[in-house]
């Protein structure tokens, strides 16, 4: 496990899927993950931290990250336009071509904020593209990721369960208990080691690519196998998982001699390190 992390931080590649990510390989595609971490109980004056990661290669083995500090408990990412623009510029520099497709996994949004987050952040993504080139208009699929819920699924018989008694890894539920009008699905992409597995809910709020249900569900499940410091599938799509790690790591980037509620006390990582997977 230690060697996996060292290899990544030195710019190496641990694994890649190849043909299982056909959507990524057909056209230049950038995959984003975004998350906002909020201060804990009793820390209401401390700021929230927004993190955005983006893939830099066709194998989805290398990600760049950037971080911003914003108002306490503000869920909408205020500087998303600048953050997305940075990643698009980096992708173009690394691949000599801007991405034709954008796949965006947004983590940590409660149902009451679906509309506000979707409207603001999709607008920021399009604005970032226009700033690069007024005629640049890539297609966008925007997916909200929910982990904090009380929904669980159980196998009907023991023959359908894995060795821990949970539903098998890769189980998808997209009928019956889904939203009557929104396009959403439940995916249990990991094999539970102990206790009852918690599936992840994915809500597709914007889709220029006109995904078929099976295609998007398969792509999302395959992304869960690209988490570079683990040899198993993880419970959340890897870009969203990386964004969570970046946001959590950024809590330690405040100067120790300054007050954390002051955004100016936050220190960004040194130039060039944001292109390395320092957060692994």
Overview of the molecule:
It is a single chain. The chain has 280 residues and is α+β, with helices and mostly antiparallel strands. Helices cover 25% and strands 20% of the residues. Strands 3-2-1-4-5-8-7-6 form an 8-stranded mixed β-sheet, with helices on both faces. α4 (114-132) links the parallel β4 and β5 (139-146). α3 packs across α4 (114-132). The termini are close together. The mean pLDDT is 92.
Q: Which descriptors apply to this entry?
A:
280 residues; alpha+beta; eight-stranded mixed β-sheet; 6 helices; 8 strands; 25% helix
Short characterization:
This protein is α+β, with helices and mostly antiparallel strands. Strand 2 and strand 3 form a beta hairpin. It is globular.
**Helix/strand-derived class?**
alpha+beta
Count every beta strand, where a strand is a DSSP E run of 2 or more residues: 8
Largest sheet data = 8 strands, mixed
Look at the structure and give the mean pLDDT. Answer: 92
How many helical stretches?
6
- The N- to C-terminal Cα distance equals 11 Å
Low-pLDDT runs of 5+ residues are none
Strand fraction: 15-25%
The side-by-side strand order for the widest beta sheet comes to 3-2-1-4-5-8-7-6
Task: Kindly state the percentage of residues in helix.
Answer: 25-40%
What value does the Rg take, in angstroms?
A: 19 Å
Output the helix-strand order.
HHEEEHEHEEEEHH
Shape: globular
